[in-house]
Design a protein that fits this description.
Layout (H helix, E strand, L loop, with lengths): L1 E6 L10 H11 L3 E6 L13 H7 L6 E4 L2 E4 L9 H6 L2 H5 L8 H9 L2 E7 L12 E9 L3 H5 L3 H13 L2 E4 L2 H10 L5 E2 L17 H4 L5 E5 L8 H10 L4 E5 L14 E5 L3 H9 L3 E4 L15 H9 L3 E4 L2 H6 L4 E3 L2 H11 L4 H12 L3 H11 L1
Length: 377
């Protein structure tokens, strides 16, 4: 069986998204998995940060096997369909594949043939894929509230709508996304939660070097540092709790500034394996998101939530609607002041609390989530 995964996020990224985890689960079930992600372009050579471009370029000549049963391809496009271009030149979204080298359609066809058992896509940037390959089942996965990102980008919103209505199965990562599609698109979408690979945390790892030099409680954040990450809240927490240390792991390129507070440590991007000891030896996991982002955050079901809980550490998060529906054993803060108070409350976590958190995470393994998806088909 062959499965084609179309995703906006590069498979080799340290920030693993749901489609990446599902790709791995398909591969474990013996499928040949082919992953295509958002294209690179020579224009990125003029970007201040060329690191990601150079890394992805290694996968731009055709599919390259990166794990057992998983091959990755990053198209090379003369004009990439970046939202700022698509907004004013919508035809780019539908025709950028014509100026790819090697040609994306030919590359996919040579690797997979003219059909596949499954196409799973989470991306609105590949509306032309049916030109190249006909799947037995087309699954469109909605991981985020697209209007929250690009409310004024008519071309991208129209692309999403067409993909939704052409899919054999639509799944959403949050219940609010499921409700939104029912109301706005009249789509009978199915809820398919995000989850965790709990086995990653079974082996106890050594304490990270950054932790050894401090005896303070340690708050950890691991994940994307994008528009929803609340730098002001993080600064407030660090200044209000100088007896704590705050460690932030993620790509800093999207941050407007780095707070100059002595007990905040930005550690940059790390692989999934490298993140494990930082979680295991942290005191508390934090999710300091801001809610004034076009309703984007209200629809988020964060993967990091399940990873924190799988380790057993307490979790303190900004309070938003989807987290209420998940009903996890975590602290939900309605204000900066309550966030500070809940950090202190998290210090009284008991071994029984730790076990309860792990048991909750065990209900959301990627293995069981992939099984649910295949049963839906």
């Amino acid at each position: 069986m062959k499965a084609l995964i179309i995703t906006s996020e590069y498979y080799g990224s340290a920030n693993k998204i749901g489609s990446h985890h599902l790709a791995r689960q398909f591969a474990k079930r013996g499928m040949e998995v082919f992953v295509v992600s958002f294209p690179i372009s020579p224009v990125y050579l003029f970007s201040p940060n060329k690191t990601q471009y150079l890394h992805r370029k290694k996968f731009s000549n055709g599919f390259v096997e990166v794990e057992n049963n998983i091959q990755v391809f990053v198209p090379n496009a003369i004009i990439p369909p970046i939202p700022e271009i698509v907004r004013y030149l919508p035809f780019v979204l539908h025709h950028w594949y014509r100026l790819t080298f090697p040609n994306i359609g030919k590359t996919i066809h040579e690797a997979i043939g003219s059909s596949a058992e499954i196409i799973l896509s989470d991306s609105v940037f590949f509306p032309f894929i049916p030109k190249f390959i006909e799947p037995k089942a087309f699954i469109f996965r909605v991981p985020d509230f697209l209007s929250g990102f690009w409310a004024s980008n008519k071309a991208l919103l129209e692309s999403e709508s067409r993909l939704l209505h052409n899919a054999d199965l639509v799944v959403t990562s949050s219940r609010l996304l499921q409700l939104d599609l029912s109301q706005t698109q009249q789509i009978d979408a199915k809820f398919l939660s995000n989850g965790v690979e709990s086995s990653r945390f079974e082996k106890e790892m050594d304490i990270p070097e950054e932790y050894i030099k401090s005896k303070k409680p340690k708050a950890i954040y691991i994940g994307a540092l994008k528009i929803w990450f609340d730098l002001e809240l993080l600064t407030y927490l660090a200044e209000a709790k100088p007896e704590w240390d705050f460690y932030i792991i993620g790509d800093q390129d999207n941050l407007a500034y780095l707070p100059k507070v002595a007990n905040i440590y930005f550690l940059g991007e790390k692989s999934q394996a490298e993140c494990v000891p930082y979680l295991q030896h942290a005191t508390t996991g934090i999710i300091p998101f801001q809610l004034d982002t076009n309703d984007l955050v209200n629809h988020i079901n964060p993967i990091k939530l399940y990873e924190y809980l799988a380790v057993g550490i307490p979790v303190v998060s900004t309070h938003w609607k989807e987290l209420e529906l998940i009903d996890a054993p975590i602290f939900l803060a309605d204000s900066p002041e309550s966030f500070v108070s809940m950090l202190e409350d998290s210090l009284s976590s008991s071994p029984q609390d730790r076990d309860q958190r792990k048991l909750f995470a065990d209900k959301f393994t990627w293995d069981s989530i992939a099984s649910s998806l295949l049963e839906m088909l």
